[in-house]
From TrEMBL:
This is HlyD family secretion protein. Keywords: Coiled coil. It is found in: Cell envelope. One of its GO terms (cellular component) is cell envelope. PANTHER family: EFFLUX SYSTEM COMPONENT YKNX-RELATED, UPF0194 MEMBRANE PROTEIN YBHG. Residues 76-103, 157-184 form a coiled coil. Its main location: other.
């Protein structure tokens, strides 16, 4: 009988141990929120033609890495007289700038003279106020002696003391005004304009800044139009005519960490300014887009740790949440190179930033862009999903 009871106890203990063995893995699994609809993606940038022209020396194809060399060149015959028009515009801007600078100099000279005159007036006033203060001090001392000898009353002493304090306050006020004017004078000497001195000089300075920016922009446009080579088949003695016969050229370069995604042009194709010529992705900022329910978005925030595993691979990639958007958010399809095709009505989007050297160097597969991925959000288990409101 005892042997039967003992064998039953052993049997039950074995059954209980076998039943408890999966609990650690189940408990660990309950601490993670798993999503299997992730897509590897990256920001997609479009490049538009900077000038009207013809495509030359196109040296890239989709999936290639251009490095530090230009991906293509654009050549364009400029319109006759374009350089003269820019020269006239530049001359007009420089004349306006010169006039504005002269007006500013006149303003500053006038302000400097006013400050010097004010300083002179204050210094002269300070001499008189100090003399009045000394006289009040002597009067106060005499009155105090008379009060001690019972010749003067306490009221006389208070009146004399009040006059002395007034004269002392006047001296200190004048000294502070002199210090303030000296500081403004020093600012003018250093080329700085105090805000409260003159609205006119501030307006002139603002106009000077605008003219300087316009001159730089005009020179930049002139530099763009002057770029190129002189057509040797049409020699000219006039240098300006040679400039107008040049072919304006523009080279297109993209970051060395990018991969060409699409190419919309070919060698010899004519394009207009603003036309899209190609697009590229930045492989240094690879991400995984994940679709989750809006209720789960409440549990996420930027910087939340995520483990990513590409389907077909065994190792995990560490990542962090970089952007969160609800189901009604507007997410333009042209923003990313790859995106989740089908989502439920209440599914929001989460972007997870990842860093993986293997994907970075896997250019032949476009850095894995478009591949499906498996995502595990740390610290969000079943308890948080279903009872998170009560736990919080």
């Amino acid at each position: 009988m005892k042997i039967n009871l003992l064998s039953k106890k052993v049997t039950w203990m074995v059954v209980i141990v076998i039943a408890l063995l999966p609990l650690p893995s189940i408990a660990n699994y309950m601490q993670r929120f798993v999503v299997r609809n992730g897509i590897v993606t990256a920001f997609r940038y479009e490049v538009h033609a900077p000038i009207d022209g013809v495509v030359e020396n196109l040296s890239v194809r989709p999936g290639s890495v251009p490095g530090v060399k230009p991906v293509l060149l654009l050549g364009n015959r400029r319109m006759t007289g374009q350089h003269e028009a820019l020269e006239q515009e530049l001359t007009s801007l420089e004349q306006s700038l010169k006039q504005s600078i002269e007006i500013r100099v006149e303003y500053l000279d006038r302000i400097s003279r006013d400050l010097d005159q004010s300083l002179g007036i204050l210094r002269a006033r300070l001499i008189g106020e100090k003399a009045a203060q000394e006289e009040s001090e002597h009067r106060r001392d005499r009155t105090l002696k008379l009060v001690k000898s019972s010749v003067a009353t306490k009221e006389d002493a208070d009146r004399v003391e009040s006059e002395y304090r007034k004269d002392e306050a006047k001296v200190k006020t004048t000294q502070l005004e002199i210090i303030q004017l000296k500081e403004r004078r020093q600012m003018l000497d250093k080329g700085m304009i105090p805000q409260d001195l003159s609205d006119g000089v501030l307006q002139v300075q603002s106009r000077i800044n605008i003219l300087q920016q316009s001159i730089l922009a005009c020179k930049r446009r002139m530099s763009e139009t002057e770029t190129g080579i002189i057509d040797n088949s049409v020699p000219s003695k006039d240098s300006k005519q040679n400039i107008n016969n040049r072919s304006a050229r523009a080279s297109v370069m993209i970051p060395d960490t990018s991969v060409i995604w699409e190419v919309d042009v070919q060698n010899g194709m004519e394009v207009s300014k603003g036309d899209r010529i190609l697009s590229y992705i930045d492989r240094s900022r690879l991400m995984v887009e994940v679709s989750v329910d809006d209720a789960v978005l409440e549990l996420l925030k930027p910087g939340h740790p995520v483990k990513i595993r590409l389907f077909g691979k065994t190792n995990f990639i560490e990542g962090k949440v970089s952007r969160i958007m609800g189901s009604a958010g507007i997410w333009h399809s042209s923003l990313l190179a790859a995106s989740i095709k089908q989502r439920a009505v209440r599914d929001g989007r989460v972007l997870v930033q990842i860093e993986d050297k293997e994907l970075y160097n896997d250019v032949e597969k476009f850095c894995g862009v478009g591949r499906t991925a498996y995502a595990e959000f740390e610290g969000i288990g079943l308890l948080e999903q279903y009872f998170g409101v009560f736990l919080r």
